[in-house]
Design a protein that fits this description.
Layout lengths: L7 H18 L8 H10 L5 H9 L7
Length: about 60
């Protein structure tokens, strides 16, 4: 669950910088699996953005 204190703009900036440095500049492997992308976000220092987005697009009515 994401924290209400999550600064989406700051976390998005961290993820964008990591995408550029690791995936674009260094020609890294793109991440397509949700759990891998969640870990990618966390490793960028954006510990809440993945869960915030997931919570925004899903509800209890969705199946797993």
């Amino acid at each position: 669950m994401y924290s209400l204190g999550c600064d989406i703009s700051q976390e998005l900036s961290l993820v964008k910088n990591k995408i550029y440095s690791e995936l674009i500049a260094n020609k890294g492997i793109h991440v397509y699996q949700p759990e891998m992308f969640r870990e990618f976000c966390i490793s960028a220092g954006a510990t809440n953005i993945f869960d915030a987005i997931l919570d925004a697009i899903t509800s209890a009515r969705h199946s797993a």
